Amino acid sequence: MPNGTIEHHLHKADTPLSWMHRLKISIGAARGLDYLHTVVGTQQGIIHRDVKSSNILLDENWAAKIADFGLSKIIDEPSSGVSTGLKGAFGYLDPEYSMTGHLTRK
Prior knowledge:
Layout lengths: L5 H7 L6 H21 L5 E3 L8 E3 L5 E3 L6 E3 L6 E2 L11 H6 L1 E2 L3
Antiparallel strand pairs: 1-4, 2-3, 5-6
């Protein structure tokens, strides 16, 4: 991607992102996750399980693109979720998932 990752701009780049760029990127990533969780299918959703700054890519317009679906899980039932072993980067895990091992769209 032309503008790299959020991680690069937050931790390594010489010129940090403005607050407006950060807000635009955050909203874009949130919309992408909402789409994965709810819009992919009426009964299915995709849970990424490894959302972190190095997995959010930035295109030529600084739009956020979610990458690296290697740990993703498909949730068939929107209300029940699925129990799994914990996967993902420490510090980025959903607190409820890290305590219960149960994934839901919520």
